Amino acid sequence: MDQPAAAALPFLKMHGLGNDFVVIDARAGGIAVDPARARAIADRHRGVGCDQLIVIEPPASSLADAFMRIRNPDGSEAEACGNATRCVASLLMAERRSGHAVVETVAGLLDAQAVGDGRIAVDMGPARLDWREIPLAQACDTAHVPVALGPVADPVATSMGNPHATFFVPDLAAIAVADLGPVLERHPMFPERANIGFAQLLAPGRLRLRMWERSAGITLACGSGACAALVAATRRGLVDRKAEIVLDGGALEVEWLRDGHVLMTGPVATAFRGTIDPSLLAAA
After folding, report:
1. What pLDDT is recorded for position 280?
2. Number of structural domains, the chain?
3. CB count, 10 Å around CB of 61?
4. Is 169 found in the same domain as 187?
5. What are 100's strand-pairing partners?
6. Which of 29, 85, 129, 134 is 20 to 30 A from 276 (CA-CA)?
């Protein structure tokens, strides 16, 4: 007897300030997205193409509306992604006809709220500052990590559920992010590798940030990176716990609350809907 033909896989293409995602709803089951399939879908030439693949799954926690699984273009799993959290939260809010959603991730539960004008605010949880929590390879002051390469040195290390190192520079335009990023990502100080941010203070309460994301490379925006940069700038005395973070794709508003949590606010957008041909997944 002939086997039934595999069904096409529906998806949404979404982005937060150009940080783009393929979003697949797997809450009904029957969809297995392993690393090989994630790589095939994320391929910008042979697949759909994205900075991260997002799979919405049933939540493990009774407090959450859904679980969000994040896969990088190389198939590895990421713990956190602020822009993707806003995108998924917006879908859940529309589905529930509510202005509030709770998104479960590997890094914990993230509370999201609609704040008007198509913007979503997400509580990204507490910034973790201890060297063991980030993690770093050795004990040190995480506000002044002994890492240097070429024109950059002395980063601030932060965990937003994923590891970040933020380097402050006087002229961001002079920094070769594509050259420095991949080397710093894999520096021995970062046993789980790290997202690398390069930040410049533009004005009081305004930072310019470019990101090299772990396993993804340069992206137009990085929500967790913006949060880490704000925390780093506050620790260095450059801002007072709140700032506009200007990324390649646009601006996010970030605030480090007194309870240690970091609140990130920004827009979300849906580019298109589509279906993935079964042959792509079969070949993976």
Report:
1. 92
2. 2
3. 11
4. yes
5. 113
6. 85
Task: Give the model confidence (pLDDT) of 173-190 as tens digits.
Answer: 999 999 999 999 999 999
The residue behind tokens 């940080």 is 19
Residue 1 lies in a domain: no
Task: Looking at the structure, tell me whether residues 261 and 131 fall in a common domain.
Answer: yes
Catalytic residues: 81, 222
What Rg do the C-alpha atoms of the chain give, in angstroms?
A: 19
Q: Specify the amino acid at residue 128.
A: R
Specify whether the CB–CB gap between 112 and 86 falls below 8 A. yes
- Per-residue pLDDT tens for 104-162? 999 899 999 999 999 999 999 999 999 999 999 999 999 999 999 999 999 999 999 99
pLDDT in tens, 76-112: 999 889 999 999 999 999 999 999 999 999 989 999 9
Q: Which residue has the tokens 């799979």?
A: 55
Ramachandran angles phi, psi of 32, nearest 5°: -115, 115
Closest CA to 101 of 71, 142, 59: 59
**What domain range includes position 78?**
9-123+268-283
Question: Domain with 60 in it: what CATH number?
Answer: 3.10.310.10
Residues 6+ apart with CB under 8 A from 155: 145, 147, 165, 166, 167, 168, 232
Question: Strand (E) positions, 30-136?
Answer: 52-57, 66-71, 77-78, 100-105, 108-116, 119-126
- First vs last Cα of the chain: how many Å apart? 25
Give phi and psi for 174, each to the nearest 5.
-90, 0
| Cis bond upstream, residue 135 (ω within 30) | yes
CA 77 to CA 188: how far, in whole Å? Answer: 20
Tell me, what's the pLDDT at 4?
42
